[in-house]
Design brief:
alpha/beta, Rossmann fold, 3 domains, five-stranded parallel β-sheet, 20 helices, elongated
Length: 491
Amino acid sequence: MEFLGREKEIKILRESLKKAENRSQLTTIKGQRRVGKTRLVSEAYRNSEHPFVYFYLKEVSENRICEEFSQVMKRSLGVDFPVYEKFEDSFKAAFELAKEKPITLVIDEIQNIRYVNPSFFHGMQEAWDFNHLDSHLNLIVCGSVLTDMREIFENYDQPMYNRGTSYLTLNPLKPEIIQKELLKQNPEATPEDLLMYYAVTGGVPAYMEDLENDSAFTADRMVDSLFEMDSRFKNEGEQVIINEFREKYKDYFKIIYEVARGHNKSAEIHSRLPKMEKKEIDGYLLNLEEKFHIIGRVSPFDGKGDDIRYEITDNYLNLWFRFAYGESVFRKEGIGEAAKASFLEAWPAYSGKILERWYKDKFRSRGMFNVVDTWRGESPVPKAVTENGKKKFVSQVTDLDLVARKGKDVIIAEIKKDPKRIDMKKVMVNSMNFIKAEDLDKVSFAAFSMKDMFKSTDELEKMAKPVAIGRIKGLVTSEIKKVTGKGKDEP
């Protein structure tokens, strides 16, 4: 697949090599598996005049690591590179080779060494501190276990803290690039094709390449590709979680699975997993959100504690936990077809949430809004219910699908696959408590559906039309009167 996007990252990497002509540079790149870290460094230095060495650090014995590193250095540089007993000595020797001219050395999955020799990074610090000013090593360290990478290079208490000269985080590709790639492969792509493409790949280049290898560029073909017996889908989620959580992965599996199934509050998860203490579950949720970044809050406007709702932030993992892990996909002959049928049955409802995520990601990628998210709160209009033969009025919860805030200017959007199901008057009414709570000066409203998916963020923003706060207040009063038979201020 053609290399997509990453222009800023390419520029930073090439500038690092240029700076290495003066003194050594250290760039850290972290990003989830398959997001394109290796491809990025390969593209950045494809035509470099300076030597390039790529070393994948496996979690094997330290002696084996040193042997493999020696072989890679010999092959890449054409030098006789010794086999040391400790990898920190191999690392120090690399500086000696870069005393005269720049060498780019990429160490991929560097976090693996801490499980082989935890003291390695003390040796790495010593080598860096003593050699980086009078050598020309363009060192790039990559890792897909985000927690380990943050701990090693960004934790104040760790030896390699503040040694980096550049820090890159590689995220999935932006919606605009996802859209462009699909249209390149299938110029006749429909909004349904684009929604499935986004749901299946989440903008992760490796998953996009899987579909390209299968020539799967329509929604039907993508589903076929996903549920084939040799699909990466059958094991991918499990591998990601085991690598991230190691010996604790089983407990995390259970919690992430419940979130994927829609049990997204702490109390709900506890009711499903009664053998786990509530306090323990809260700790896992906090780690998943703040440390591992696998789940996020459905809305930053949620309250605290048991009011917080969570969702899996990665499209592919969300799909895997919902339709592979829970259904035991591919565990035995024929189960793939059963899981595929289950997926197709659930798709109409599931895809509605994916559509909301698509538009939120589009607005986030613009980089001009302070907050882009969902809001949940109490509607200003009560609901009439009959209890024991008596009519009463109770509060009701409502959602605003998309809230994009820029200072005190806000765009509120309703998102539905079918535009005929959008009731903008109801959206305006339900926004009143949010407007009050946030003390807003200006509010604009928009309605987005499947037919708007290919529009640019600029075009979507222009669809939002301002509505006077006074008009919204009038609509609220009118709706309350319809339900209760009284005006808003009447007793």
